[in-house]
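Name: DNA repair protein RadA
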Amino acid sequence: MAKATTAFTCTACGAAHKKWAGRCDACGAWNTIIEEAPLSQGPGRGLGAAKGRAVPLSGLSTSEPPPPRFLSGIDELDRVLGGGLVPGSALLVGGDPGIGKSTILLQAAAAFSRANYQAIYFSGEEASAQVRMRAVRLGLAEAPMRLGAETNLRNILTTLDAERPDVAVIDSIQTLWSDTVEAAPGSVAQVRAAAHELVTFAKSRGVAVILVGHVTKDGQIAGPRVVEHMVDCVLYFEGERGHQFRILRSVKNRFGPSGEIGVFEMTGSGLAEVTNPSALFLSERGQPIAGSAVFAGIEGTRPVLTEVQALVAPSTLASPRRTVVGLDSGRVSTILAVLEARCGIPFAGLDVFLNVAGGMKVAEPAADLAIAGALLSAREDNALPPEAVLFGEISLSGALRPVSQTENRLKEAQKLGFSQAILPDASKVEGQSGMALRRITDLTAFVGEVFGAG
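Structure predicted for DNA repair protein RadA:
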């Protein structure tokens, strides 16, 4: 067994000695040398006996002002970032191929440069001429931003250190390679090394770095998950190819609320921000039709109204189909089971199709009542009141549970012309909401009151 290393230190001057002595050779003081235990006594080499410097500590109270922010002028983007881009922060943007990641970041870099911030855009997947062609199509050719095409990490960091821009966009992290790592670009080792160097550079130089990340077939950002832990903000760009709407969602944000969304519309001249997404998602609603329910939801801090569409038809298959788009399929199966067990309404032998209009994705449990309303409306061929919105969580017992931010949901619905809300009985509403509230205790009461059956 290796002998434990012991350190001797002078308490007067801090000089280290290999063995004890009565007098310190460095300062000449007597009887000031003491024996100190090593920092690490674990297996392997450990930290040994050498000590580092003490880190200065501070309390939680501070008089420092909040960090300044760069405003791009794109309100939807600034909203998702928590009020603007923080200098020295690192962001990671992911999304499906062709969804518009490069387009929105090129527009953002041009917007920052027009707001008198120095912006540099590095493209590792396209040549500079291709990026210029996109800029001309988007009407950004006159923006004072600068462009580079490079995949060598050392060259990119050298350029950023010399230029010291306010904002740097790297498209994408999977194309970068470091000459100190013997692996192909896009491998776990290369992605981890490139992300570490870029995040460290952003913190030390005060440059806001925006990284683009590829996604896997499951929709997760490719590469090691540690990259998402290193950055300050993780954004996902969502949307369906067949719809013109694109949603920029923050799933992590150290400088603002997570879960915030920004809504954009894909046009021929790029992505245009949508200031009132509720009106846009409901714009195609016509005459009242069976199987349609309007859900008043909350995305981050923003209330958003979406339409839940259901279709129930007789099935010729032994196992009826359950097709769900934009909703949690497990949650839908639970609601179908509750309807059959607690209300006596079977869906056996029936194909069930559910969809959220506009390509929106809803993950809130508050959408349970709207899902149940759309399913029952489609099954009974009886349209819900067109002036009503629905929200509430359904428990396994069939009871309706209240949800948060009830007042914000009602205000958004009233602003769009809805005059009635169907909600759980225990929901708390302070003051006059200006809407007729139909309070429901459980799912059985909902079936009897809305559809006239017990």
